[in-house]
Amino acid sequence: MTEQDLRELKGFGSKALDEVRDKMAELEF
């Protein structure tokens, strides 16, 4: 795995986390 692969994976992870947070917020309210 190259450093770029790790960086892209990290970016994808944070994006997915944001989407999960948005969905949780929708469910709560």
TrEMBL record:
GO terms for biological process: DNA-templated transcription. The lineage of its organism: Bacteria, Candidatus Saccharimonadota, Candidatus Saccharimonadota incertae sedis, Candidatus Minimicrobia. It comes from the Bacteria. This is RNA polymerase alpha subunit C-terminal domain-containing protein. GO terms for molecular function: DNA binding; DNA-directed RNA polymerase activity. InterPro entries: RNAP_asu_C. It comes from Candidatus Minimicrobia naudis. Residues 1-26 form the RNA polymerase alpha subunit C-terminal domain.
